[in-house]
Amino acid sequence: MKKENVVAKKKFGQNFLKDESVLRKIIQAMPKNDNKVVEIGPGLGDLTKFLVDVKSVEAFEVDTDLCKLLQSEFKEEIDTKRLHLNCGDVLQAWQSALVDEPYDLVANLPYYIATNIILKALADPMCKNILVMVQLEVAEKFCAVAGEKVFGSLGIITQSVGDAHIVVRVPPTAFDPQPKIDSAVFLIAKKRDRSDKEFEDMLRVAFTQPRKTLMKNLSSKYEKTSLEEAFDSLEFTQTIRPHQVSTNDFHQLYKIIK
Ligand code: SAM
């Protein structure tokens, strides 16, 4: 099959990034280091082409038709080991580490599994930085800070692991086919790995009903007296909402009530 005859498959979240200025912004935003690059979903190889110019790349593509196309398009890079292409579902291939050396994840992710992939990368000890395109709403959740309406578990988990910011917003017109929603590229510079499952369980309870008070949400799992003591010592009001509590304060709260 030729590149121009490819019909995008919805079930694999295929929206190919065609705007070269966005591709260049992704390359410019890449952290400067010696890490390998992992690309999830190279698709037609438009981003891959730029990546192999600057780094050695390990790519994972689930679509066998696209995989065949990439194998012929990038024959030279594959032969010279600039590119290693894994054909199959990245989630099946992912053990605790996706590859066995330090890497940065750089990708225009398939949106239907983007959150799952980012959470796995945050937990992966070999993953050092995450520079990905996702739908704008998801990027905003990962980059949110306390006080913002969208601040929740994803923002707290991210801030507990490193620093995050949005690199560029991307309109539907940058893709073929065009998605219905806006997208954004964002960067997480990891300083440590995501690891404390019990802390994340507490977050899930804290945000069960995001518009209710933190006290009400946490009371469904934790003892009221220990919550009241913790709220007093952290000077939280009884009416504080979960999105108003900073990441640091959530960690303090966890230390007291766990
Ligand atoms: N990187 C290309 C670009 O920027 O134009 C394509 C991005 S497209 C949004 C997502 C890509 O991820 C598609 O090529 C799709 O086939 C691939 N994909 C979807 N699910 C996958 C999975 N479970 N494992 C590996 N690749 C997957």
- Strand arrangement within the widest β-sheet reads 4-3-2-5-6-9-7
Domain module tally: 2
CATH topology of the largest domain: Rossmann fold
Task: Characterize the biggest β-sheet.
Answer: 7 strands, mixed
> What's the CATH superfamily of the largest domain, by name?
Vaccinia Virus protein VP39
- Tell me the structural class: alpha/beta
How large a portion of the residues is in β-strands, by DSSP E? 15-25%
Q: Terminal Cα separation, in Å?
A: 57 Å
Considering DSSP H and I runs of 4 or more, what fraction of the residues is helical? 25-40%
Morphology: elongated
Bound small-molecule species: S-adenosylmethionine
Q: Which spans have pLDDT < 50 for at least 5 consecutive residues? A: none
Q: Specify the CATH class of the largest domain.
A: Alpha Beta
Please describe what this structure looks like.
This protein has 258 residues and is α/β, with parallel strands linked by helices. It folds into 2 domains: 188 residues, 3-Layer(aba) Sandwich (Rossmann fold), CATH 3.40.50; 61 residues, rRNA adenine dimethylase, C-terminal domain (Helicase, Ruva Protein, domain 3, Orthogonal Bundle). The protein is built from 12 helices and 9 strands. The strands form 2 sheets. The protein has a 7-stranded mixed beta sheet with strand order 4-3-2-5-6-9-7, with helices on both faces. It has a two-stranded antiparallel ribbon with strand order 1-8. It is elongated, with a radius of gyration of 20 Å. The model has no long low-confidence stretch (mean pLDDT 96). S-adenosylmethionine binds next to strand 1, helix 2, strand 3 and helix 5.
